[in-house]
Write a structure and sequence with these properties.
The protein is α/β, with parallel strands linked by helices and about 325 residues long. It has helices at about 55-60, 125-130, 135-145, 165-175, 185-195, 230-235, 275-280, 280-295, 315-320; strands at about 1-5, 15-20, 25-30, 40-50, 75-90, 95-100, 110-115, 120, 155-160, 180-185, 200-205, 220-225, 235-245, 265-270, 305-310, 330. Residues about 5-10 have low confidence and may be disordered. The longest helix has 16 residues, at about 280-295. It has 2 domains: about 1-135 and about 305-330, Medium-chain alcohol dehydrogenases, catalytic domain (Quinone Oxidoreductase, Chain A, domain 1, Alpha-Beta Complex), CATH 3.90.180.10; about 135-275, 3-Layer(aba) Sandwich (Rossmann fold), CATH 3.40.50. The strands form 3 sheets. Strands 1, 4, 5, 6, 7, 8, 15 and 16 form an 8-stranded mixed beta sheet that branches. The chain has a 6-stranded parallel beta sheet with strand order 11-10-9-12-13-14. Strand 12, helix 6 (about 230-235) and strand 13 form a beta-alpha-beta unit. It is built from 9 helices and 16 strands. Helix 3 (about 135-145) packs across helix 4, helix 3 (about 135-145) crosses helix 8 (about 280-295) and helix 7 (about 275-280) crosses helix 8 (about 280-295).
């Protein structure tokens, strides 16, 4: 039997909506129409949790590469369970716990999606962990395993090592057999990096970073911070090193002179994990399968540092904007 199911009767449908690009203050919790019934090869999901990512914050001000049309609902990763299925979808999928992905739209109580936006949640992950799993793990995989060609025994430096993205890179670096140093700005964040498996941690001040102790000792730099950290981090690379540009949490992109790259044969590599999958869908599926296998093996669970209820979602955005967030932030439903 195929098809069937539906959302719970008599329940209001709420979603966080953005109608102007004015930052966190633009977030509004609104009553909205229920999602449409699932068509062929679609399913309706009742959300259990959404993981917060830096692009979610940037989109509130129109500062991300992708600018969704207004109005929009934020949220690009999460977990939920299937409450209705369309034609061509086996009815035994009803009730299944699924990871959910999209460029936006997930901060809503229910949504209807194509099956390609869903995949089974690894049983090893709790709902909170599953909600914040995919983006960090996928970015780390594309950066380290694919673009950065990290090999066992190499030395990996992770900047922002106490944030959700950095912690995913620490965990994956260890899973790939690297020696990992995590740089982070607070004792709390450095402790989380140790929990994630970092072999060493180093304190770093983003305003006046000093990485001289690592100069010429690193094979791969994973950098979601940029700004003033970029130049001293570049100096840590040895011959043939790879500098992985993940993002610019620390501020505007740094200007790097090409003559800094030549003497040591350094590669500077841009990483956009989601775009990699859009450009090559078959590769994107392989990348997701790889991180799910590692999660099932207990090697790639996120460290969640902040949980807030759905109605308090702006609190998580503020913690991220103010640099107070250690670990992953998750917005939970129910």
């Amino acid at each position: 039997m195929e098809g069937g199911g539906g959302p719970p009767e008599g329940m209001g449908m709420r979603a966080w909506r953005v109608r102007e690009l004015s930052g966190i203050g633009a977030l509004r919790l609104e009553e909205v129409a229920e999602p449409p019934a699932p068509a062929a090869l679609e399913a309706t999901i009742a959300m259990r949790g959404v993981g917060l990512n830096y692009p979610d914050l940037l989109m509130l001000e129109g500062r991300y590469q992708y600018r969704p049309p207004l109005p929009f609902t934020p949220g690009m990763e999460g977990v939920g369970h299937v409450v209705a299925v369309g034609e061509g979808v086996a009815a035994d999928l009803l009730g299944a716990r699924m990871l959910v992905g999209g460029r936006t739209g997930l901060m809503a109580e229910r949504l209807t999606l194509r099956l390609e936006s869903l995949r089974p949640a690894p049983e090893t992950l709790t709902d909170v962990e599953a909600a914040g799993f995919t983006t960090g793990a996928l970015t780390a995989w594309v950066a380290l395993a694919e673009r950065g060609r990290l090999r066992p025994g190499e030395h990996l430096l992770v900047l922002g090592g106490g944030g959700g993205m950095g912690l995913a890179a620490v965990r994956l670096g260890k899973a790939l057999g690297a020696r990992v140093t995590a740089a982070a700005s607070s004792a709390e964040k450095r402790a989380l990096a140790r929990r994630a498996g970092a072999d060493a941690v180093i304190a770093v001040d983003r305003a006046a970073p000093d990485l001289a102790a690592l100069e010429g000792l690193v094979d791969v730099v994973f950098d979601p911070i940029g700004a003033r950290l970029a130049e001293p981090a570049l100096a840590t690379l040895r011959w043939g090193g790879r500098y992985l540009v993940i993002g610019f949490v620390g501020g505007p992109p740094a200007r790097i002179a090409f003559n800094r790259l030549l003497p040591k044969g350094v590669e500077v590599v841009g990483v956009r994990a989601g775009e990699a999958g859009r450009q090559d869908p078959a590769a994107g599926r392989r990348h997701l399968a790889a991180i799910d296998r590692l999660a099932e093996a207990g090697k790639l669970a996120p460290l969640v540092g902040l949980e807030v209820p759905f109605a308090a979602a702006p609190e998580a955005f503020r913690a991220m904007a103010e640099g107070r967030l250690a670990g992953k932030a998750v917005i939970r439903f129910g």
